[in-house]
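Lecture 7 notes. Example A: sequence first, then its structure tokens.
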Amino acid sequence: MARVCFGRWVCEVEDALLDAARPRCGYEPFLVEEGRPRLRLWRRADLGEGARPFQPGQPSLGAVQVEEEGLGTDAPLELLSAELALRALFQLAILRQGGLCLHAAGVAFGEAAVVALGPSGAGKSTLSRLCVQSGRAGLLSDEVVALLPDGLVCGSPFRSEPDLPASRAEARLHAFLLLEKGPAESLSPVRPAALVAPLLGQVFQGEGVTGLSLGAGTLPRLGGLMAPAPGFRLMFRKDPAVAGFLDEWVHGLSPSRS
């Protein structure tokens, strides 16, 4: 069993599952040698009645069952199934730490992180790549980030693009950004009430698996996690200048425009 660190918790995972997920999950930075495992992920054929498929429309991908000590799964040792199993473990670990997982990009400018939101095609991976290639920022993930109760944003092993490596780094949440593509970089405030729906739409809900979703408790938890940070609408070009623009803004300078 390998040990990975998700958020602040150490978890055990069967080596075969990690190997199967390797092409899509950059889990190497998350491997640790020490620490008492709080959860584990293991494969078994005899899941109980509480098991649910990862994706109801595709039962061949396998199923998962949440238990006190972790997750049991009958996922085959194939790429997508193994990734779904690891995502379920990451989600369970973050939920039990009092946090939430978001389908979002996280970029760290020093000790301050921005969490970028938007539908598919809005530019999460593009923004991540531009910021990282500029050398002015570090990537937490362009696919899945975790919000923790102490105001931190944590990276995950998951990525949507192979050239955007995962990171176990963490940074203090500075702001949420709703992404829009445009002719120049600009930021405009978003009222907290108008930020709730975009954020709630990106919270991982667990596909109805008991233990991987908070149900009605999701909104109160989200409200507490988002309270320390404001929201902004970021309009940006496909240009590395956006990295400098955000870096200056995060550090209290007036952003320059190219």
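Example B, a different protein, same format:
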Amino acid sequence: MTIPTVPSLVVPEAFSRWLESRGLIYQLLVDFYGRKPSLSLVAQWIRNRQLGVAAEMTEGGRELKRYLCSQEPSALPQICERETREYMRLMNERAASTIVAREAAELGREEEFCNVLSDVYASAGIVFKKCGGEADDHISIELEFMAVMHERMLYNSFSIRSAMELLEIQERFLEEHLLRWTPQFCERLNAATDSPLYLGLSHMLEEFLPQDLQMLRAWKTSLESSAATMA
């Protein structure tokens, strides 16, 4: 995982911490909702120095940090084995589970709904390489879309106008997709597990997404003000 360190845009101090952390949070959620919690994955995140700052943005993040970073190295293999079993129980669509980590399932839509998401991704010029054959409306793919758009907005935008266009895509995607179904998904997940890992991830997700939308809207207002001043 590569995270750039020098943004192309000049970012006001009020938004810098959020912008520096949000891409990391999306990537963490992508990794743990889209993959089994292997020893290498867990160790990678424990060693990530930026995790501490990003975790402070939500109570769920703090829960997750306390759980992951309080473990003795010798205990990690057993913990990862236990959490992998929980991942398979919770996230396996073929299992007799009340949880399906897909937008269409949560909202009672037809399977063809995936075509809507495919069109959204294509219009943004994104094609996902799906190692596990995930559907376009799977939570890990929707979150990865946000992670990719964040990186484009912050590190490949060289004008307020281009940043604004990428910001608005993310704003709409949160409003029209992620925030329409993840609250129900998190509610089901909270009721279905006592795993500190998956409870921390669920709490982090349900806190962070509304907060992220609020901050996107605030930064949009700031960019609009900057553009008006420069006009």
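Note on Example B: The chain has a mean pLDDT of 88. The two ends are 39 Å apart (CA to CA).
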